[in-house]
Specification:
Largest sheet: none
Radius of gyration: 17 Å
Helix content: over 70%
Number of strands: 0
Shape: flat
Structural class: mainly alpha
Distance between the termini: 35 Å
Order of helices and strands: HHHHH
């Protein structure tokens, strides 16, 4: 098995593990909305990963960053910059989450987790776009 095939299998394995974990969470909580969001994101991610891994040279910088298929040091540097932005967003989001949970009981834990997931996933995609545009 080549290095590319191992990386592809690992990335798809992470997506499948997320689907299985989400399914178990849904089975325990019975939250259909969370299941639909997780399955939509996981399906989209799997399709993108397979597409980019099969033809990495045809992919744009953003596509390679989103699928975690780094061809060279430049891609790795862009990915580190994007993850730095996501880390800042995660810290701010965590502070907001703590404050919301301390001052109100209006939101359940599953909705907080869903919002965090969506915001962090979206900020990762936006950060990838931002760092590639800034680099050009």
């Amino acid at each position: 098995m080549s290095k590319t095939d191992r990386a592809l299998a690992l990335n798809i394995g992470v997506v499948v593990a997320a689907i299985v974990a989400a399914g178990a969470l849904i089975w325990v909580t019975g939250n259909l909305v969370f299941l639909i969001v997780i399955l939509a994101v996981a399906g989209s991610a799997t399709w993108n990963i397979v597409r980019i891994f099969r033809r990495p040279d045809d992919a744009s910088d953003v596509d390679r960053l989103n699928s975690m298929k780094y061809l060279d040091e430049r891609d790795r540097s862009l990915a580190l910059q994007a993850f730095g932005i996501v880390g800042i967003v995660a810290l701010v989001l965590t502070v907001v989450t703590v404050l919301v949970t301390l001052f109100t009981d209006a939101l359940g834990a599953e909705y907080i987790a869903l919002v965090q997931f969506v915001v962090l996933f979206g900020s990762w995609a936006a950060a990838n776009s931002y760092v590639t545009r800034k680099q050009q």
